[in-house]
Amino acid sequence: MGEIAMTVNGKEVAAEAEDRTLLVEFLREGLGLTGTHLGCDTSQCGACLVHVDGALVKSCAMFAAEAAGREVTTIEGMAGKDGTLSPVQAAFRDQHGLQCGFCTPGMVMATAALLQEDPAPDVPRIRAYLQGNICRCTGYHNIVRAVLQASGQDPDRALAAE
Fold this sequence. Notes:
single chain, alpha+beta, Ubiquitin-like (UB roll), DNA polymerase, domain 1
């Protein structure tokens, strides 16, 4: 067991962890950041997505030690310092892009990464990008609407053109 230090949501943090500790466990149990979810234990569902040095990463498939010295952003780091929702989070709220909410942190993190790569994705691109995120509640329609809104597009117009 050793101490692992990294920057999480803009703050320098350090905690004790075994070498085999997954990043998702380190965030949830070591740092108390429970917004990142562990949904499937097989790195298939996307509920555990975080950004590591700006790249989208499944935190259930990365050891915490691999993130040592790096910058990690979790769902808790997406909101403003005053608690205001990010445009992506606000779009998910506005478009009712969640039901139970379990997949939502991963969907928000994936959407933020997509919009970094492609600021105005079309519907097929959105669906393809999010195919690694499993939602058992929504049917994805309102999630796609949320991504369109977050990108500054009119969801009704974009979906009508599909």
